[in-house]
Every structure is written in structure tokens, then in C-alpha cells.
Amino acid sequence: MTDRYAVIGNPIAHSKSPLIHAEFARQTDQDMTYAAMLAPLEDFAGTVKKFQSEGGKGLNVTVPFKQEAWKLATLLTDRARLAEAVNTLKFEPDGTMLGDNTDGAGLTRDIRENRGISFAGKRVLLMGAGGAARGVLLPLLLQKPERLTIANRTPEKAVELERHFAAYGRVEGGDYARLAGSLFDIVINATSSSLSDALPPLPQGVFAPGALAYDMMYGKGLTPFLQFAQANGAAHLADGLGMLVEQAAESFFLWRGVRPQTQSVITLLKSC
Known about the structure:
The chain is of the alpha/beta class. 38% of the residues lie in helices and 22% in strands. The chain contains 10 helices and 12 strands. The strands form 2 sheets. Strands 2-1-3-5-6-4 form a 6-stranded mixed beta sheet, with helices on both faces. A 6-stranded parallel beta sheet has the order 9-8-7-10-11-12, with helices on both faces. The model has no long low-confidence stretch (mean pLDDT 96).
């Protein structure tokens, strides 16, 4: 019997996940289907449980349900537990609902493998302290940067993340003003500013020689953050398309036990 998977969200029609996973399945010769599933805002849990009861094997979870999925899962990976958000559910034969968060693995793999940039010994700046930032913090710290700085408009939220993740590496949180005079090798935008064509209040002069500027959002052309980075000396620019594909590959590996090749899928999406 063909195994069934889906991505669940609201809205969901725009999702590229069905195309990505169809390519992964074709490439690895997996007998599976993958659909986009719209869940009512008031009944995410019911929709998930119905899919599971009908024999579904796993779900990707997107906006606005990642925190609900974290609460619904009966077993959590460490990275999902610390993120307090789940983007991947795997339904085990015994009824266990395993919750994982593959966003950070997707981000770090895209930077490390596709961009050829190591985190080891680097000064990393993460902008934002919401769910997107929280979801990638543990995987970032496991890459052993020299230090990881979190900047947020509401500094208390960044400091809270500092406390939450302090056991896993050198991390410090605060506001944007305190970044003045500091240099960073990797600057990651985990805010939603690019969705509204806005720019985080990043001081000039924070990009070290050879720095990478990475926006977790993606779209046609450079985001306002990447335009700012380009004008202020960042040597490398990247949007979140590679992260999207790599986090999907991590989910696919969790479900199917085989890791697909991602470069051809990234190239395909860029041409769409």
C-alpha cells in the first residue's frame, strides 16, 4: 500500500513542499504520496488525528500550527523540545506521534554543505527571537561557533533565549544598539521583516571581511536585508530557499530512512 504524507497549514495552497517531496520520492524510488492539507484554525488536532487514523505516515507542519504540533506530539526530539515548535510529525506503528523540528538542521546544512561555510570558531548573529529563531538555535550552537549573539527589538525576549540555551554553547541576547562596533562572520535574519519589505534596525559595519548574510525568507530578487548586507560589505548573500529544501530532506530522512540529494531540487525551485 502506498504510504501517505502531507503538509498541513492554513493557508497552504502556496506551499512548495508537495513539489519538493515528489522530487525526493522520484529520486529515491519511494512508494509514497504527498499532498497539501488545509486545516481549520480551530481544529488542527482533530485534522491530524483523522489523518493518522486513516493510515497517514507523517506530516510536515507549517504556519500557524507549529506550536500546536509541539503540544500534540506524544514524543519529542531534543531539538523540538527546546524549540517548543514542531514542523515534522512521524506516526509510529504503535500510535506514538513523534514530533521533530528540522528547520535548524536545514539551515545549518544549507550553509555548511551548499555554501561551503563552516560555523566552527565563527561569530554568528541571529536577528529575531520568535519561533523561527528559537527553532534553529540548538542546531546552530551544536556547530560550535565562537559565539552566538541574538538581537531583538524587544531585548527581554533575546535574553530569555540566552538563558534557555546557555547550557549548549556561548550565547548572548540583547537589543540591536549593543551590536555597534561588533563584527560578525555569519548574520542570519530570522525575523519576518522581509515579508513586509522592512529591515531590522541593524547598525552599519557589522559584517566582517568575508561575511555571509543569510535571510531565512526567500522570494524573487534580494530581500531588503540582503540589499542592506550587499551595500554594507557582506561577501556572500543567501536566501532561505536552500533551507526550505534541506529541512524537507531532513523530514524525508526521518520518515523514509534515506537522504535525498537536494541540489537538483534547489535548482528546480529557482527556475519555477
